[in-house]
């Protein structure tokens, strides 16, 4: 009897995974449609090129564009506006690298201590 329960839970688990997958695909489709409405074909092509090189950065940029459009801050975005938006985005997200060099003193060797 417990075997029947296991099979049933596997079916339910498979169905929920499939429904999650369908929901995720629907969200991605909505996302594509929104970006198609926001971006001109040239800007869309540039964003696709960025996505090939840095997918995580492109995703964050897409999220920002969608949010801005939802709040009415931007209208149709052409390639030049996308470049400006990208440069502002890069300034906000770039991490500054700091290198610190610490040198040992010549007579402070731990190996000589016995």
UniProtKB/TrEMBL annotation:
GO terms for cellular component: cytosol. Pfam families: dsDNA_bind. Transmembrane segments: none annotated. GO terms for molecular function: DNA binding. It comes from Galdieria sulphuraria. PANTHER family: PROGRAMMED CELL DEATH PROTEIN 5. This is Double-stranded DNA-binding family protein. Residues 1-28 are annotated as: Disordered. Keywords: DNA-binding. Belongs to the PDCD5 family. The keyword rRNA-binding does not apply.
């Amino acid at each position: 009897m417990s075997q029947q329960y296991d099979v049933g839970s596997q079916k339910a688990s498979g169905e929920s995974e499939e429904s999650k997958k369908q929901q995720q695909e629907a969200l991605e489709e909505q996302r594509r449609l929104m970006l198609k409405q926001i971006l001109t074909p040239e800007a869309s092509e540039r964003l696709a090129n960025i996505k090939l090189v840095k997918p995580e950065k492109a995703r964050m940029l897409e999220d920002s564009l969608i949010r801005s459009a939802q709040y009415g801050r931007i209208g149709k975005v052409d390639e030049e506006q996308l470049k400006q938006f990208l440069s502002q985005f890069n300034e906000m997200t770039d991490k500054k690298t700091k290198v610190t060099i610490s040198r040992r003193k010549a007579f402070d060797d731990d190996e000589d201590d016995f």
